[in-house]
Amino acid sequence: MDASNFSDDIQETSNSEIEAFFCSAPPLKDAAEIKMKLKDFVGRQSLHSESGKATRVVCVTSGGTTVPLEQRCVRYIDNFSSGHRGAASTEYFLKAGYAVIFLYRRGTCQPFCSSLPDDPLLNCFDCPDMRNVQVQPSYAEDVVNAVGRHQAAITGGTLLKLPFTTIFEYLQILKETAVSMKDLGSNAMFYLAAAVSDFYVPWETMTEHKIQSRSGPLDLRLAQVPKMLSVFRKDWAPRAFCISFKLETDTRILLEKADMALRRYNMHMVVANELSTRKEEVVIVTASGSKIVRRDMTKAGGEVEEPLIEVIVSEHSIYIETSTP
Ligand code: PMT
């Protein structure tokens, strides 16, 4: 397969297509609250930098977006992503001294929770009587650790969590986040690990009520979600350090597509990963070449996100040093 076959996937989008998407999207229910939270959070980081400590802020997107099929949504199309990459990366960014805006799909993996069972409430706690809640001794250390680190990040003002479910919510919040981070210049970073829908049902053509099965087989025509990455780089976050991800299941096309995304969307880095090996290794693709990053197998609980974030932080430092203020 040659590169021309990929052109349907990596494409330019006109500003009018993007405008049309936002105009037809149902407005965010909590837009004012989100704006306020972003303003406070980013403002707090700017204050820190005035005291001589330049705070770097990264927006980590995580989890998959849904595409509703009905306005009063009963059914939807989903995009695969457990949110593990985003949640683990958030922890390493916090460790490296970044403030993190964690834009995540509701119900997906959360930072600091990887050592807790999937159903933490039911498995971690005991209720010997109505007034007593106890942590099961086998989980005590993990719970104390998770709660303590989470609380420290939230109350210390280094972690802001913003949830989304649909593609409409995701893109509106991402835009709002980018605009709110504009003044941070090169200290801002975007780490776009979310799995974003490529096709959707435009809101105005969507049926209001639950689609009835008695009408027979369902014919669906999905419109293409405009690729936001070009406008993102050009208009929303022109000075930020931008990393996008490329997920494929066919390794033969992975690097070529990552390289194409790097050039087409003018990204600083594209992290390429194959679905079945994504927890073991990723390939960082930049204008100066590519580099394989692997999980440290000799380390118990070693995660690929640890060396990945190390490389990214050091590339971001070079970017900041070489950027004009
Ligand atoms: O969550 P995990 O289970 O740990 O898995 C992590 C992951 C595999 C989901 C993650 O590492 C990953 O690869 N995320 C990106 C997956 C993806 O959607 O790739 P894509 O080829 O569809 O999109 C490429 C880039 O374009 C993404 O950065 C996306 O944010 C962006 N995009 C996509 C569609 C669209 N309409 N607009 C966009 O801007």
Instruction: Give the spatial strand order of the biggest sheet.
Output: 7-4-1-8-11-12-13-14
Q: Under the CATH scheme, which class?
A: Alpha Beta
Pick out the low-confidence regions. 1-8
Distinct small molecules bound, one entry per kind: ligand PMT
User: For this structure, what is the CATH homologous superfamily?
Assistant: CoaB-like
Distinctive features:
binds ligand PMT, globular, 9 helices, 14 strands, single chain, alpha/beta, eight-stranded mixed beta sheet, 325 residues, Rossmann fold, 21% strand, two-stranded antiparallel sheet, disordered N terminus
Please give a structural write-up.
The chain is an alpha/beta fold and 325 residues long. It has one domain: CoaB-like (Rossmann fold, 3-Layer(aba) Sandwich). It contains nine helices and 14 strands. An eight-stranded mixed beta sheet has the order 7-4-1-8-11-12-13-14, with helices on both faces. A two-stranded antiparallel sheet has the order 2-3. Helix 2 runs parallel beside helix 6. It is globular and about 55 Å long. It starts with 14 loop residues before the first helix and ends with a helix. 35% of the residues are buried. The N terminus is likely disordered. Bound molecules: ligand PMT. Ligand PMT binds next to helix 3 and strand 11.
